[in-house]
Amino acid sequence: MRLAWLAPLAAALALGCAALPTLTERPEEYRLFRAARVAPTLEERLRAADRYLHDVPRGPHTKQLRHWFDPNEERYFLAAFNRLPNLYAYRDALPDGPHIEDVRSRIRVLETKRSEVVTRSSDENQRIAATQTHLREVDAQRRAFVTTFKEWTARITKITTFGEPTSELADETIFAFRLSEPRGACQGDSCRKLMQLGYEVPGERELVKREALLEVQLELDRGLLQRARLAGPGLWTRLAEALALRPLPSPTPEERADAINRSAMLVRALLEPTLPAAQCDVATPQPPAVLERKCHGLQARMLAGQSAADDDSIEIAPATP
Hints:
With 321 residues, the protein is an alpha+beta fold.
C-alpha cells in the first residue's frame, strides 16, 4: 500500500522525459526534434524530422519520428504529385527526402506540359488574332466596294452640266475621275475609268474571294457631255453578294432576280436626294430597264444585262421628250 503512489509518479516522469532533452542529447538535435513536433507548417515539420533522421539515426527520438515521418511524407508526396506548387514545396522542404528523385522527375514532366499548353495557347491566340484581323480586312474590302458604288452613283446623279465640256463637271468629280487611282482618261468622245474591286463573302465553310469590275463611262458628242454611266459585268449580282454576304458564282434565274431587286432597293435610295420619286415621273420600265425616273430635265435608268457577261449599269442623261 505504501508503494501505490509510485506508479503515477513513474508515468509522469516518463512523459516528461519524452518532451525534454536527455542528458546526453545535444541542443541542436533537440531543436530539430522539437521543430518536428511543433513547427507551424507541415513542410517545416517534415523538414525538421527528415534532418533529424539523417543527422541522428540512433537518437533517442529516432523511432518516434520515423513512425510519424514515413506515412506523412508518403501522403505529402502523393498529394503533391499533380500540383507543381506542392512539388516545388516538397523539393524545397525535403531536398534529400525519400521521393526527391520522383519529385524532380515529376516537376520536369509537368513543366514541359505547362510549357506546351502555354505554347498552344499562344499559337491559338495568334491564330484567333490573325483571323480577326483578316475578317476586319474582309469587311473593309466589302464595304469599300459598296461605298465606291454609292459614291460614284451619287456623283453621276448630281451632274447638271450635260451639253457642256467635262471641264465644267464639279471639281470633286473631276478629281475623283482624273486624279484618284486608277486614273480615268478620255479618248475621242469616250472617257473611261475602270476600277477592279476585290472582296470576300462567307461560303459554306470558308470565305470566298470575289471580284467586281466597276467602270465610270462619260459619253461625249464633239467634246460635250451627253451621258454618264456606271457599269460592270454582272454588277447587280456582285453588289447583291456584298450586301447579302452570300456568294453567287453561278446564280439561278431566281437568284439573279433577287440580286437585281436587292440592288434596285439601294439604287432607289441613292436617287432620292437628286431625283426624288415623289417629284419624278416613275415610268413602268421596259427591259432591259429595271428602274426609271425622269424629272428636273434628267432621266435615270437602271439596266440589267441579259447574261453574266453583259454589263449591268445605271445611267444618267438629259430627259427625252
